[in-house]
Amino acid sequence: MSTVDLRQALILYATETGTAQEVADRVARECRRIHICSQVLSMDAYSAEDLISEILVIFIVSTTGSGAEPRAMTVLWNKLLRSDLPPDLFEDVHFTVFGLGDTAYEKFCWPAKRLARRLEGLGAHKLCEGAEGDEQHLLGIDGALEPWLKTLSSSLLELMPLPTGLDIVPSDQTPPARISLVNSTNPQVTTIDPLEHDNDYRLATVKCNTRTTAQDWNQDVRHIELDFVDDIQYSPGDVVVIHPITHADEVEKFLTQMGWGNLADELLEIHHVYKDQSLPDHLSHFSTLRTIFSRYLDFNAVPRRSFFGYLRYFTSDGAEKERLDEFLSPEHADELYDYCFRVRRTIQEVLSEFRNVRIPKNYIFDIFPPLRPRQFSIASSVKKHPRSIHLCVAMIKYKTKLKIPRRGVCSTYLAQLQPGQELRIRTLKGLLRLPSDNNIPIICVGPGTGVAPMRAVIEERIQRKAFGNTLYFGCRSSKKDQHYASEWQLYSANHELIYRVACSRDGPEGVKRTYVQDLIIEDAARIWKLLDEDGAHVFISGSSNKMPAAVKAALIHAIITCASRSEEQASQYIFDLEKNRRLIEECWS
Ligand SMILES: Cc1cc2nc3c(=O)[nH]c(=O)nc-3n(C[C@H](O)[C@H](O)[C@H](O)COP(=O)(O)OP(=O)(O)OC[C@H]3O[C@@H](n4cnc5c(N)ncnc54)[C@H](O)[C@@H]3O)c2cc1C
Ligand SMILES: Cc1cc2nc3c(=O)[nH]c(=O)nc-3n(C[C@H](O)[C@H](O)[C@H](O)COP(=O)(O)O)c2cc1C
């Protein structure tokens, strides 16, 4: 590889839920260790036309629903796909790609794979082999990231050798903090909700927050209605983005544990020193530790490997150092897994065990991950409920392998919202798209809270007088967790919907349980007619575990039995439906 003189790199990331951004920060720190100056940008903040004049671009790309690219990548990706681009367009550009994905999904890291292929097709030079982080790995994304960083570093040094007089910064040297915090004495400053300044966000008032599952049922699922003063626009399939606020008691407990209880409400000025390291979105220049740990940083998250790296810098205790060294050594990855990831220990719990760690306040944004906003499918049609958004939200409540009770951060926040309370939310385009022709039938498969976008879709269709609607809903008990049952029954009585429900636990003990996919198999002939003769569109929504694959297998089965196609032909049929956007999945873990 020939060398280049300008020692700089562009790190372009595309993230949907923030992990790729954290990885980009980590890559930038690695570049800094070898004195390469890097600029870190989200792909949607970068002009694709400038790519041609870059020397080196490191792409960090996650994967979202059905193997699609994150929204932030779409514009750049569409430009790269143009058929009139010459094959030597990027002959002066070096690149590598780190993909983030999850092998539990069918299309593992597709955007990263496709991007690498396309760039090579346009003449760009691979700096080094890319890598793909997998959420299913023992160490999550870090399982592939840490070894890849080593490869990346040595390839970078080959392309951009260290100038004489400079040494690689040893990995045990504490990196500088990305911010500096200064106590502010400015009495003029008031801390207001920074989402107020973001025009994408709208103020919503909680109209109702009611439980849809029976009181004596173990799962708490809420129907939440949010009202707006002005008209709002959204389409069926769109999602809302909600920024959770951690419960005040938990924040207080955490700040006391950290020894910051007395400082919690001091007004601080935040100076962003190292711009190659990101700060949480919407962070104000002035804030307090209480606000920061309520709204921006997540001490309830299961920590990543790099968190333990920082603890190693900030403990003075020999035994703790030894334990942390063990966790950080690649040979002992299983110990870190057993200690932390398997049992889902939180950052707060780890900190309560490593009692000698003293975190300097300037390092909080390096050590604690951002508190991520969560997405929820809209469960209403704006045509039926103007100035209103409905949600169907499952409260996350479970016990870890250590029998510690846990609650989801955002669902807990939503659960305690009372009518009249306000919050700021934004909407985003989802994946589902209704056929523009109202005569085309739709088949909705939405078990559990997967019914949320289906309610939006069905309400919208009925408003449009499109009555060729079928819903396959799945729950455990017809009496306990059949969300919106009375609505489905009414539509059904009015011939606006064919409602099929699988209640998996209602049958007698020992008899095979029925799920949505079983109903699809029962209805094979009808399904095939809808698909083949009527050109039906299929929507699948809900849990991303085995459900979507089982539903597709059931559709394949229907095609094999009713259309006398081979398994290969039936699979190709489903593949084509997906390709033509006649079968769309919106699933989440
Ligand atoms: C496009 C999209 C649409 C969505 N729509 C909806 C919707 O309509 N309704 C809805 O309820 N949710 C929906 N979600 C999911 C939602 O965004 C949140 O992920 C969910 O509410 C959990 O957030 P939380 O903050 O409460 O939980 P978190 O604090 O994020 O905790 C969730 C994590 O806890 C762990 N966990 C959960 N249960 C268990 C268990 N039993 N055992 C072990 N570990 C466990 C898992 O690691 C899980 O990732 C959607 C997600 C996406 C991406
Ligand atoms: C709704 C949703 C859909 C996903 N779909 C896929 C997928 O099709 N293929 C894949 O490899 N990973 C998929 N993933 C996994 C993410 O790519 C992975 O968790 C990644 O670390 C997220 O990175 P981000 O936070 O930067 O977006 C999906 C995750 C979610 C939440």
UniProtKB/TrEMBL annotation:
Q: Which GO terms describe its molecular function?
A: flavin adenine dinucleotide binding; FMN binding; NADP binding; NADPH-iron-sulfur [2Fe-2S] protein oxidoreductase activity; oxidoreductase activity, acting on NAD(P)H
Q: Which InterPro entries match?
A: CysJ-like_FAD-binding (IPR003097), FAD-bd_FR_type (IPR017927), Flavdoxin-like (IPR001094), Flavodoxin/NO_synth (IPR008254), Flavoprot_Pyr_Nucl_cyt_Rdtase (IPR001709), Flavoprotein-like_sf (IPR029039), FNR_nucleotide-bd (IPR039261), NADPH_Cyt_P450_Rdtase_alpha (IPR023173)
> What Enzyme Commission number does this protein have?
1.18.1.-
Q: Where is the Flavodoxin-like domain?
A: 9-153
Q: Where is the major localization of this protein?
A: cytoplasm
Q: Where in the cell is it found?
A: Cytoplasm; Mitochondrion
Binding of FAD occurs at R344, R374, Q375, F376, S377, G408, V409, C410, S411, W588
Which SUPFAM superfamilies does the record associate with it?
Ferredoxin reductase-like, C-terminal NADP-linked domain (SSF52343), Flavoproteins (SSF52218), Riboflavin synthase domain-like (SSF63380)
The entry's cellular-component GO terms read:
cytosol; mitochondrion
Q: Tell me the keywords, alphabetical order.
A: Cytoplasm, FAD, Flavoprotein, FMN, Mitochondrion, NADP, Oxidoreductase
Residues recorded as binding NADP(+), renumbered to this chain, are: T449, S504, R505, R513, T514, Y515, V516, Q517
Q: Which cofactor names does the annotation list?
A: FAD; FMN
Give every FAD-binding FR-type domain span: 199-435
Q: Which reaction is the catalytic activity of this chain?
A: 2 oxidized [2Fe-2S]-[protein] + NADPH = 2 reduced [2Fe-2S]-[protein] + NADP(+) + H(+)
- Residues at which FMN binds: T15, E16, T17, G18, T19, A20, S62, T63, T64, G65, E135
Concerning Pfam families, the annotation shows: FAD_binding_1, Flavodoxin_1, NAD_binding_1
Please name the GO terms of the biological process aspect recorded for this protein, alphabetically. iron-sulfur cluster assembly
Q: How does it assemble?
A: Interacts with DRE2; as part of the cytosolic iron-sulfur (Fe-S) protein assembly (CIA) machinery.
Instruction: Name the protein family.
Output: Belongs to the NADPH-dependent diflavin oxidoreductase NDOR1 family. In the N-terminal section; belongs to the flavodoxin family.
Q: What does this protein do?
A: NADPH-dependent reductase which is a central component of the cytosolic iron-sulfur (Fe-S) protein assembly (CIA) machinery. Transfers electrons from NADPH via its FAD and FMN prosthetic groups to the [2Fe-2S] cluster of DRE2, another key component of the CIA machinery. In turn, this reduced cluster provides electrons for assembly of cytosolic iron-sulfur cluster proteins. Positively controls H(2)O(2)-induced cell death.
Mind telling me which PANTHER family this protein's record contains?
A: NADPH-DEPENDENT DIFLAVIN OXIDOREDUCTASE 1 (PTHR19384:SF10), NITRIC OXIDE SYNTHASE-RELATED (PTHR19384)
What name has this protein been given in UniProt?
A: NADPH-dependent diflavin oxidoreductase 1
- Organism listed in the record: Lentinula aciculospora
Q: Which gene encodes it?
A: TAH18
